[in-house]
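quick one: heme C bound model?
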Amino acid sequence: MKKVIFSFVIGLGMLTQANAFEGDVQAGKTKAAVCAACHGANGISAVDMYPNLAGQHADYIVKQLKAFKDGSRSDPVMAPMAAGLSEQDMSDLAAYFQSAKKAAATSDESTVAVAPVTTAPALVADAAKGKALYEHGDKARSITACIDCHGKDGASDVLINPNLAKQHPEYLEKQLHAFKDGSRSNASMNQVASNLSEADIINLGAYFKDTSAVGDVSEMQTVTVVKTFSGDVEAGKALSATCVACHGADGNAAVPMYPSLAGQSEHYLVKQLKDFKAATVNSDEGRADPVMAGMVAPLSEDDMKNLAAYYASQTLRPAASKSNEVGQKLYLIGDAKRGITACVACHSIDGKGMGQASFPAIAGQNATYIKSQLEKFRLSTRGNDTNGMMRNIAVKLSDEDIVALSEYVSAMR
Ligand code: HEC
Ligand code: HEC
Ligand code: HEC
Ligand code: HEC
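yep, here:
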């Protein structure tokens, strides 16, 4: 019964091009915390392969989230993210990201955005050709002008069609390839993309890169190199005296069963300290560890922030370890057959994690410690990973996988 009503509501929503569910911007903002790791705090992502969501049409966002959930748009990273979302969550999130446009444009956040990676394409990109194709299409090759559906300068006024302006070119190129090879399906786009040559795709990418044509892209790709910490580094240093025995004087642990904390993200460290404390109040919550429970007991929230700032400001001396090919393959590609998401999706290409949210840096960490954590996630004795992100993966790892991954990750630089 519920299902019938549901599809009716969706049908209606499509007809009117309006959201069947009213989205609540504030609720969406709260729910978006888990998305920030990849899509950025304001929906402006720092990683080329993760799309910006700020200012995107809410209707389009809802449609994509539904597609990720029902599998009609398949992506190993977004599938588990969307699986847990209700219709209301989707509408709230969409409302928030649509409204995030202004905030993003005037943002002075201290989030660290990475510089756009300029990889030299094998073909020489021609932005002018990309622009011509975008605006006029190519009748001879049956390519409809993109502007017809995506609007002038990539700002579409059809709510179910995505804005392309200010989107990462690398992401857009990947989508064009996916529409072309059919791995992402949409009738209009599959038709359009099937006629695009490799040169067209690169030219279009170059056009999207062209700031004068698609708005000020530079605005969202500014490099903030200054490391800022929300906690007080000096106060944290003073507090760290009690931690030295296990985590080392500067956060570099000498004993391999203890984690190094140096250079770890502040967000992640604060979360762990809070989680250790939460577990002492309710054993079903947080991260239970008998040793750390005692350590965090006397810490106030400010102490935690200051300690996190101190360790984040230190430099990691990577563990001595030799690389591992099996581990490397799992890390970079995962294993689709066994449903293992590639670690790179969340811990990034260099293992440095995604700082502004809580995806930890793991590169150069002690292998013994990494192994112990993967085993804990596998057994769910560590269960403080939002949405079971790590447990879902670890449960599919064999003992051999865990050893291989621990070696590889520990040897990453
Ligand atoms: C671990 C990283 C990660 C997290 C966390 C994440 N996403 Fe994504 N998201 C991605 C990737 C990667 C893609 C692009 C998939 C593709 O290439 O098709 C994507 C695509 C999307 C898209 C499609 C955008 C477009 O232009 O088509 C939407 C909408 C989206 N994500 C929403 C969300 C929301 C809402 C959340 C939080 C509930 C979230 N994502 C959390 C990685 C992530
Ligand atoms: C007939 C209308 C139409 C035309 C013409 C068209 N598109 Fe699209 N495009 C769409 C729709 C609809 C979607 C959303 C598909 C979905 O819901 O998954 C889309 C999605 C996209 C996306 C993915 C955006 C994202 O955020 O994931 C890209 C990139 C794109 N189009 C580029 C182009 C380019 C380049 C052209 C011209 C060569 C073009 N489109 C022509 C309708 C069109
Ligand atoms: C007696 C040894 C010991 C002392 C002293 C100690 N820790 Fe730990 N710490 C550990 C162990 C063991 C773990 C790993 C727990 C697990 O396996 O989940 C850990 C884990 C952590 C983590 C999580 C690291 C990660 O990568 O997830 C943080 C953060 C942390 N400790 C901070 C501190 C701080 C801050 C202090 C001082 C106030 C401190 N620790 C004192 C033993 C210690
Ligand atoms: C969908 C995102 C995602 C993927 C994919 C992922 N991780 Fe994680 N990982 C996380 C998050 C989030 C945490 C931190 C959980 C928390 O808040 O305590 C984490 C924590 C960890 C930790 C513990 C770090 C520490 O300092 O305690 C290790 C080790 C780890 N991941 C290894 C891996 C490996 C190896 C893979 C690939 C097999 C992988 N992860 C894939 C999201 C992911």
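The longest helix spans residues 87-105.
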